[in-house]
Input
Amino acid sequence: EIVMTQSPASLSVSPGERDTLSCRASQTVNSNLAWYQQKPGQAPRLLIYGASTRATGIPARFSGSGSGTEFTLTISSLQSEDFAVYYCQQYNSWPLTFGQGTKVEIK
Amino acid sequence: EVQLLDSGGGLVQPGGSLRLSCSASGITFSSYGMIWVRQAPGEGLEWVSAISGSGGSTYYADSVKGRFSISRDNSNNTLYLQMSSLRADDTAVYYCARRSGFSSGWSDYWGQGTLVTVSS
Output
């Protein structure tokens, strides 16, 4: 099983600041990596797939990078609606696995 | 517009059974693989099961293998998860989600979730 490890577990950020979240895979997942955003009481929402491609309707302030085992999600200027939990997920091999999540809170 | 509507959750006793459904609209259902993902209270996301567009291939997490069964009815655009021998640690919100491809890929559309509570 590929273990996905996200860091940090949580962080406090002021609106307008830049934010970088990390995701590491225990073995290569090539570029088969997605990022999701989840707000309380809501289903996850796809942000990024293929490690760096924004999903339909996702603002340009969200960007993804990386390949192999190291990935990052960057939010260039945090808006109030961006405070949420972010998960990475590998879909390279079975079982599909998620990171434990990074909670982005308002400072 | 793509819509996935999860249903079938509820309170069940340990050892009991439950069948979840996910009704899809706005898509050519048989063209897409589907998955179930669950989230225990206050916890992260856990993949549970997957099925290819035709239903010919199925996959399970070790935690549910032998107890859960995924299936689909492409004529009625509906995905199912039959759960049996339920345990307290199966308590979670269960989400269905569409995969981007026939049998692989990311999950681009999600249902709203249905809560399963296993308790006596």
About this structure: The radius of gyration of chain B is 13 Å. Chain B has a mean pLDDT of 96. Chain B touches chain A through 23 residues (CB under 8 Å).
